[in-house]
Structures are given as C-alpha cells and as structure tokens.
What we know:
Elements lengths: L3 E6 L3 H12 L4 E7 L2 H7 L7 E4 L2 E2 L2 E2 H11 L4 E6 L4 H10 L3 E4 L4 H12 L7 H12 L17 H11 L4 H8 L3 H15 L4 H10 L7
Parallel strand pairs: 1-2, 1-3, 3-6, 6-7
Antiparallel strand pairs: 4-5
Amino acid sequence: MNRISVAMVEDDASFRESVCAAMVAAPDMAIDAVAASVAEGMTLLNGDPADVLVVDLGLPDGSGIQLIREARQQWPQCEVIVATLFGDEDKVLSAIEAGASGYLLKDALPLSLVDEIRNVCAGGSPVSPMIARQLLRRLRSIPVVSNAGDADREPLSVREIQVLERMALGYTMAETAEHLGIAVTTVNTFVRRIYTKLGVCSKVEAIDAGYRRGLLHRN
C-alpha cells in the first residue's frame, strides 16, 4: 500500500500530538515531518516533498500563509490544508489565494482531519461548514457575469449537479455519498468530472462557476 506522506507545521503541542497519533494509527498514512514555526517550516520545505502539508496560520514567528506560498513553489505537487482557529474571511481568502486546497477549523477531531487528508488526495477540497457558508455569502454578493467561453464546455449531468449542490451547502464527500446513496469513491469521481467540465481546480472555484453558469441558485 502506498502511504500518504504528511508534513505538519503546528505550534500547539497538544493538537499536533493528537493529530500525529491519529496518523500513526492510520495504515495508509505517515507523518514524515513536523515543525512548530514559520522558520522551522521553511527548513522543512527544503527536504523531500510530502503529499499533503497541514499548516496552522497563527504561528509564533509569523503567518502560515508565508509557508503556503513557499510550499506552492518548493512542492508544487503537494496539497495544502489549513488547520487553524482563525475563521475570518480575510484569512480564509488569503490562504486560498496563496494556494491552499482546504481550510479546516480546529474544532474538527484529529480523526476527522485524517479523513480530510484522504479527501484532498482524492481530488477534494475540504472546507469546514462554517467557512463554506462564509464563502457562499461572499459569492452570492457578486453579480453574475456572462462568460461566453462557458458555453463551449461539456454540460454537467444531473448527478454531477446534485453533487455540486451538496458541495455548495458545505457537506463532506462522505455526507454527500450517504445522502445520494452512492459510494464515497463515486462522489470523488463526480467531483473530478465537475472540476474538468467547469475548468476549475478547487471546490470554491467550482461553486463560483456553478453560480455563474446558473447551475446553482442564489436563495
């Protein structure tokens, strides 16, 4: 079995140890590098690339957003998940713009984070429900702009639209699979197809494109 290689930059020792313990117990995962500050994280990025980097934003010597930007340069194939206490819109948007593939609040249990690491490796973009609602409110405030290039793209199937709707409501892949009565791996396949058909590479971009193309409706 190919294990998912994980690196983590987190200064909260209790949270860090809990997450590491959950990863050690997961047969498909390995925690290969750990740092507790921006400086240590920068050094960490000089080593072998991980599959997933989990990074906090509030580090003792700076912002984790610096690390996200550097990771996109040093480890271009690595997926970055933010795990933090900060849920304000500016930090969320800055992290996504810097290259984060997911944004989770630390109220999630360590086991949930392990599941979300699998999620991001399968092509998903894990986002805590509160963060998803915040992003949706922002997207709903942006006027719909016609994009002629969208007309040339392959249309989404009924099932793909259903999956996109659940994504927009902030549900996880597991919750979507249960609601639709299909396997999580099938949901992952639908998500990859949605990204391809919409010409996007993240959950937030997919939701934005869904509103622009009229696939999702503003309430």
